Amino acid sequence: MENLAEEKKGTTLLMMGNDAIARGAMEAGVRVAAGYPGTPSSEIIEDLASVSKQLNMYVEWSVNEKVALEVAASASYAGLRSMAVMKQVGVNVASDFLLHLAQYGTRGGMVLVTCEDPGALSSTNEGESRPYSKMMEFPLIEPGNFQEAKDMTKWAFQLSEEIRNIVMVRSVTRLSHASSNVVLGELPEINTQPEFRYHSNLMDTMEGPIINLPGTVSFLHRSQQEKLKRVAEIYDECSFNVYTGPDRPELLLITSSACNLYSREAIQILGVQERVGILKLGTTWPLPPKLLEKHLASTENVLVVEEVLPFMEDNIKAFTASIGVRIGVKRFYGKADGTIPMVGESNPDVVLNALSKILSVKYEHVSTDYSKKAAEIAEKGAPPRALTFCPGCPHRASFWTIHTTLALGDREGFVCGDIGCYSLGAISSGFDTLKTLHSMGSGTGLASGFGKLGNLGLNKTVFSVCGDSTFYHAVMPSLVNAIHNRADLTLIVLDNSGTAMTGFQAHPGLEVNATGDNVPAVDIPAICRAMGAKVSVCDPFEIEKTQTVLLKAADDREGVKVVVLRQICALSPEKKGKKLYDMSVDEDICIGENCGCNRLCTRIFKCPGLIWDNEKKKAGIDEVICTGCGVCASICPSGAIKKKEVK
Amino acid sequence: MSPAMLSNDPYNLIITGVGGQGNVLASRMVGDMLLQSGFFVTIGETFGASQRGGSVMSHMRISAGSYFSPQIPRGMAHMVVSLEPTEAIRVLKDYGNSQVKVISNTRPIHSIGVISGEQAYPSEKDIKKWAEELSQQVWFINATDGAMRLGNPIFGNIIAVGALSGTGVLPLDRETFRNVLLKKMTPERVEQNMAAFDMGVSMIDSQTI
Q: Which pTM value belongs to this model?
């Protein structure tokens, strides 16, 4: 990406939605930004961090989303424009503080950007955050194209200052991680001095102390609701709500966010511009009442196109009922009646199908002959690609040893999983090792509970795993809980020195922060020892040594053991492209199918750098793929895989 | 600069491959070239978990007039560039049609299902036959071997961009490519990438009678 702080007003760039959001914040003069990495949100903080010194900002990767929101809020309380950035699940983490933040209100313009993942392309759920805006009573806006991703982010700060409350900007994968032409605006010169005022009384929300107390709740809550009424008036005049279509459409299609792009295109493809009007809402909570009434009155039929929950649909239906005496009854199409699927990501075809059904327009994208032939060919010609750990990934080695350790002797045991690349430990690439997988930190919370069930008769070895970034984010409280309550468990920290899943963002275990400054690293083994756990550290590439350490931990039934398996990620900038070893297979030693191993290397270990040569019936190394970690040499029972140190 | 005429507007291009082959970068390069020539470009990318051995697809919509959905409607691709042969077949299933054109690398990347023996990887001969059955025109190029001759298999993506330019389906000229590179890298790396681009162009030229 170009240096976003040096690009001038009027320049057109091919910008990813996240870059556009970051530039919008720069154009608004944001001074403090904080977030926790999570796909598809991570590029925004990275972009801001890369220009923070030029633009006199403070930008950080926080330990988790709740702290990120708190860090950003402090800047708002000191009169600066600030932003917190996270993915949809992060808003759940931040939500306790968010409720209090929204009740009291903000001072400097404050924006919460949430980048969400309908269809769960890189998430373990397709949860969403829009309902928080209604539940916690603050405004929500949703860009409907790439230019708007920039322009609406900038406007969000202005709106926040107008009503003195937080504004949520919601994006989705197909905006955040898609790109298009964006015309840039001006970068302001801003040098506001931070000042936190608290000398006035509790009811003075601009100059008093920022306190949510039982006695002030009714005052604050009422004032919060007054703000939302003002928002609805602003939304009625907002230029990000756009109607395109005839004055009296046969069908009114109401949409927002990426679904705007799909809807526009579907209407064009079917050529039904004269029959369907499209109301693209940029402001989705509260609804713009006058604008909506005007358009609902113009038609008898309404289709709501959105992803995940029927959030707009339900709200629009309730609103329509409330003005029913004036505009009459409308026929609604959307998620409730099955016109739009309740689950999964949307795309132009979802809208094409919906429109062709409602309008009785025939639509066939290719001939039935072609689709039938293509499907038949793909069945044999495109074997599916299951996800796997990268070649040279330390997690493959770690799970190999965890798995074999638990299988040794008559021991029975299982592993509680957590969120990161190592979640793949749940499938065959990780030897089906994980038996639970939920949210950040939950593996160790569950293990803390399972680790007490021994007293009630559950006789199994309990392991949990977490990554280094996850350890700081949410595992620490669970670990304290386990230690204090004498749970019997072993926590294995898969420390690959970075937030690898999302692109190596800094975390508290590293000596460099988001903006490249030196910072004190907070040492995981030292924390665990201080908490009272028995701690060992080893390199997962040393298979035998790791197994000895894990066995010892498993057999020690007294209290909490922590094993830190430390090896840097194969894709990390420091390591990428550097081989530790040149690997080869000695074809005289590899006896293939005749070896008792039953192709252990390619059938079970299955690193993508290994090849099974079907003609020779021997294993081999794919030199394009292999990263030379040397682990497969340790697992070959015949010693046929050779490693030679790269000097 | 006024955009040259497109054979279709929007022109729908898919660049596909396996995580780690650099197809996201390739789509970015093509996008920046077309942006310089005055087009609207919309790119939709599926990554995230893709570095971990999954299929990766970039959908590109190229238009003289507007932005489009970052997902191409089914059956509406005009050109598929694939850095891995079976990925071309996978894309054709959803986005192909009888008029589609295809450029495909011949070098397979085996999925772990193939490595473990649970799945069979089709023969090059079959893949070629199937790709021809499902398209109007196909160019097979040995981009990975070419890239190895240039010193690094990662140049396969730039060779594919060169090949795309060589087919002439889109206004992607050599000088625009150089200008895009100059903004992003050192002069030495520009020359390496130019060599890869030229190699891609010549791989198409040698197949055109």
A: 0.96
